[in-house]
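Internal tracking record. Fields below are filled automatically when a chain is submitted to the structure queue. Please do not edit lines marked as system-generated. If the sequence contains nonstandard residues, flag them in the REMARKS field before resubmitting.
Queue: standard
Priority: normal
Entity type: single polypeptide chain
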Amino acid sequence: MGSETLIPCTFTVDKPPMDPRFLVVFWYFQGKEILSYDDTMSTSDTRFSINTTRAIEGDASLTVSRVTVADNGVYKCAIMYLPQKKAKDVSLLVYAPPEITITGRNAVINKESILNSSITGFYPVDVDFKWFRDGEILNNYTVSTPQRNPDGTHGVHSTVTIIPTEEDKHQIFSCRVQHESLSEPLYKYFTLEYKHKGNHSGLKHCYIVFLYACYYPIRGIQPLHMCHFWSLPR
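SYSTEM-GENERATED OUTPUT FOLLOWS
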């Protein structure tokens, strides 16, 4: 993804050296012509090219720059050296490695807690994901259905439910991803962030405020007494 790659295509002629006047090169992708060379080169996308100097030496390999997921598939290299014509198919396999982000690691002792993670940016879609606590697998987890990103890669979210103990404060938790793009499993290590149970029962402070207003008596109206009470929680 994003790099440059070379799709090989080499050939020989019966009677070297090769005469460039008789050489024509075509490259196809998904049945459509993407490059042709007949003394001059023409392409459907500036990311595609061949080395014209090497082509007349028998190497018409296709360079693809800024590779994307959309470039994955079968290409066809066709060589015409009049009057002969030969062609072969070459597969380009595009891989994008996953990244792991821990999006939630808050926990409360002896209370059900949910850990969250995101696995993003991978291609192809198949991925294997596991949670661990000090190397021991955690089974009570879920993995979402893969979502396709605008660039063609995929992403999933995963959660695992645990009931942390005091012992878990000293444990190392981890996520593991296995994917075709990786030569070895990818791990993300982390520790839990603990939150104390809240205690909002009762009142921490109590304030009683008396608002008192007196008015001189007017015929038919009595003095007014006003009181207001409020408190702040603990």
